[in-house]
Amino acid sequence: MLLSLKGNFPPAILALADGTVFLGNSIGAHGATTGEVVFNTAMTGYQEILTDPSYCQQIVTLTYPHIGNYGVNEEDIEADKVHAAGLIIKDLPLLASNFRKSATLTEYLTRNGTVAISGIDTRKLTRHLRTHGAQNGCILGLATGEAVSQALVDKAVAAAKATPSMSGLDLAKVVSVKETYEWTQTEWKLGQGYGVQITPRFHVVAYDYGVKKNILRMIAQRGARITVVPAQTPAADVLKLRPDGVFLANGPGDPEPCDYAIAATRELIETGIPVFGICLGHQIMALASGAKTFKMKFGHHGANHPVKDLDNGRVSITSQNHGFAVDEKTLPANLRPTHISLFDGTLQGLARTDKPAFCFQGHPEASPGPHDIGYLFDRFTALMQSHKEGQKNA
Ligand SMILES: NC(=O)CC[C@H](N)C(=O)O
């Protein structure tokens, strides 16, 4: 087998469950990893992508060809560790440079125990996934001095085939925080770093199904102190905290088996407290309202997805990361579509017609990605403001 070694990196094998095999170099931890192989088309933001808890048990292929050129830093993290099950890239530049750089991508992957492969024809792999759908895979990162053999290739294919399907997997409770905590950090500013919310106007309870830090920062930035609670917290415990609004986070896995989250959300929406859901939170809100979700062929993962706001016709370029979607045909009468994807027409946003509750399938916190749809956080703040005023006048 032909294999070009670059920068003394040992060989690595990428195998898909259908038996397709790619050879490359191991640029992270040595060992084996398995997961659903998905592709993300964002040009920047690999550190945010790797640390997004929604990628738990997924191996991410980045279609942008140069990954690692600005290294990693201590600030651009969406969780305290890498959650992606593995990384597949085309080219790892041997020089990484940025004023905030604290380590190289390889050092970071190795430190986090993340198996990663470079030198892959990611264009070919992505076309394969687009044609045949997302499928499970295995990366085998060999140790220095180890050689690729047919036995190792067979082992990688067998591991890919043995990986359980993402459908039916409840991973929200796996990645969720186990204890409640308070959050006050606000958005990052050049020269200042992250800020702190010291004069909150609202109290938000955020369900952690695998929450990205930048979502919490954007809510805090708009005047909220946040209590983050574990995924399985019952609605009654949340109500005891007397929130002005409830946030349902993004998260990994299939939304359908998250029965505890669906039940709690149904109860909370009924109380009339403003509720805002993002991604998995959007799917949970839809399920709690009586709609159904389905597994998409290869999902949406990128930072350039056009989404149309059906209320005003405005098109936003958005960040996306989901493999499931809400089925428009199953929407009950009190759930109205607010946004659709201009790539494939799937549902991107919903609002309850009878309660102050709305949700978005993409990622308005845009970390990484364009900030076009950040107005949804303002919508949540406005709902909390009028709810508070309504309570005062009642
Ligand atoms: N980013 C997310 O919250 C993803 C939601 C869900 N796990 C999906 O793949 O559709």
UniProtKB/TrEMBL annotation:
The keyword Nucleotide-binding applies. Pathway: Amino-acid biosynthesis; L-arginine biosynthesis; carbamoyl phosphate from bicarbonate: step 1/1; Pyrimidine metabolism; UMP biosynthesis via de novo pathway; (S)-dihydroorotate from bicarbonate: step 1/3. Keywords: Amino-acid biosynthesis, Arginine biosynthesis, ATP-binding, Glutamine amidotransferase, Ligase, Nucleotide-binding, Pyrimidine biosynthesis. It is an enzyme of class 6 (ligase). Residues 10-140 form the Carbamoyl-phosphate synthase small subunit N-terminal domain. InterPro entries: Anth_synth/Amidotransfase, CarbamoylP_synth_ssu, CarbamoylP_synth_ssu_N, CarbP_synth_ssu_N_sf, Class_I_gatase-like, CPSase_GATase1, GATASE. Belongs to the CarA family. Composed of two chains; the small (or glutamine) chain promotes the hydrolysis of glutamine to ammonia, which is used by the large (or ammonia) chain to synthesize carbamoyl phosphate. Tetramer of heterodimers (alpha,beta)4. PANTHER family: CARBAMOYL-PHOSPHATE SYNTHASE SMALL CHAIN, MULTIFUNCTIONAL TRYPTOPHAN BIOSYNTHESIS PROTEIN-RELATED. This is Carbamoyl phosphate synthase small chain.
